[in-house]
Design goal:
Blueprint: E1 3-7, E2 12-18, E3 23-29, H1 34-49, E4 58-64, H2 68-85, E5 89-93, H3 94-106, E6 110-116, E7 122-130, E8 133-143, E9 156-158, H4 161-164, H5 166-172, E10 176-178, H6 185-197, H7 220-224
Parallel strand pairs: 1-4, 4-5, 6-9, 9-10
Antiparallel strand pairs: 1-2, 2-3, 6-7, 7-8
């Protein structure tokens, strides 16, 4: 099954194309240049497979939570490519993709995934490995770091939220933390393929972002204070 995936939910851009045997990925710090870089990187990963967009079975994307602008870019690119080729789309929660990356890199099976949500908040979720899938222990949410709690157990911390708020990992008594992990497009493909096999791909028009926080603008005072959504 040939899948293209894109994630723009953080300052990193991750684009990958893969099947059952090989995943080619471009993963780079994009800042605010996701919209300029996304399509050239898509062309690059497809070229390494000698694929065209029409050769794909589906397109997956990091649906959020994360940067409002970045999530919209990833969703729009996925929808545009899918509409042009009549391919299904698989939205994948970015925090689940972060858990999958922790599994790929550290064999972690109980993961607290955490991204900096700005405005002195974090995006947070907890996942436990169940066979070859993840069980959602705590769904994606946005909250103040001091409000985050976890069920008892041996949890691995993944994501930049732990770099932004170092005391959080200590308070949660996590067994280990990798704050350098970011959502990976190859991880998104690994999560998307079983859903496609189960018939869970959706039409492009029904592929929606997962914002969690529903504010889409800042007040003038918040902008002046340097806050970002």
């Amino acid at each position: 099954m040939r899948v293209l995936a894109i994630d723009c939910s953080t300052a990193w851009l991750s684009v990958a194309a893969g099947d059952a045997t090989r995943c080619v990925e471009r993963h780079e710090l994009a800042g605010q240049s996701h919209s300029q870089l996304a399509l050239p990187r898509i062309d690059a990963v497809l070229a390494e497979h000698a694929w065209q967009v029409s050769d794909l079975d589906a397109i997956a994307f990091g649906a959020g939570p994360g940067s409002f602008t970045g999530v919209r870019i990833a969703c729009g690119v996925a929808q545009g490519l899918a509409l042009g080729t009549s391919r299904p789309v698989v939205p994948v929660a970015t925090l689940e993709a972060l858990a999958q990356q922790a599994f790929r890199m550290h064999a972690a099976t109980r993961v607290c995934a955490c991204l900096d949500a700005r405005m002195r908040e974090v995006y947070i979720a907890a996942y436990e490995r169940d066979g070859d899938r993840w069980r959602e222990v705590q769904p994606p949410a946005v909250m103040k770091p001091d409000d985050v709690t976890l069920p008892r157990g041996d949890w691995f911390g993944a994501g930049e939220g732990f770099a932004a708020y170092p005391a959080l990992a200590q308070r949660l008594t996590l067994r280990a933390v990798d704050a350098t992990l970011t959502p990976s497009a190859c991880a998104i493909i690994e999560l998307a393929v079983p859903r496609l096999i189960a018939g869970q791909g959706v039409d492009a028009a029904h592929a929606l972002p997962l914002y969690v926080r529903h504010r889409v603008a800042l007040t003038s005072a918040e902008r002046a204070a340097g806050m970002r959504l």
